[in-house]
What does this fold into?
Amino acid sequence: MDWSTRSCARNGHLTFAPEEPDLAAQMGAVLPDGQAWQCLRCGAYVAGSPALAGPAAAAPVVPRGREIRSRLILRVFAIERVLRGVVAGIAAVFLWRFRHSQTSVEHRFDRELPAIRDLFRQLGFDISHSKLVGLLQHALTLSGRTLTLVAIGLAVYAIIELTEATGLWLAKRWGEYFAMVATSLGLPLEIYDLSRKFTVTALVLLLINLALVLYLVITKRLFGARGGKRAYEARLWSESVLEAAEAAATRHAAAAKENTGVPVAAGATEPATAIDGRTRTEADSAAETAKTRPR
It folds into this structure.
């Protein structure tokens, strides 16, 4: 699957016109009724005015290919973190509100439990030995002070999970570090809990957290892994359309100097210089077709 093309089809193209004449000659194509510019994401030539313009150094680093896929995976983890945070938040509010009246709540819970049990049984679930029901019943027998501390702990946990979700959804570097550290700190406790009593749910949650930690360290090169941040940013730059245009402009200037012995003038073009795997002639042909592309 071409993630770059799919992203452009969904979000639109992101064309860029550099101020440098040699780069503009590589990333632009002249049409009979105007000009086309190359998309920084998918590399296609799109007719019309560029979405962005300015010096090449100010061009945004646009995720392409596997980096787009990586952001999608992080958003899946972010959704799972949101679910955890919401559940913890609801539990914290419930315990906080009834921390001083757990006796009446316990009586009402015991009174309503048979009806709840019958309802779930009709849906095909037997909650007679549910761990969650047992934890709720046990929590209602605790003192008000203990319930207050548990509610505060759940609220803090909910905030941590929602902070993780925000950083992962936005694909921020700080969010990746925060999620990795916060998740790693909880792994020993999850392993200990699983060793005491094995449950499928606990195993699944442990595997999810372990997968997130490994994925972040390996793919995002956190804490210096695989070259660290510098190597990660270098990989992003090596995959960019702008880098390919700069390399093509450099080759064009070197070829012209070798053939003529005179440095090529800025902005000069060459009929058969490669641009992102295509010659200038092919690029112009693609630009003709690009007139029909949506921007």
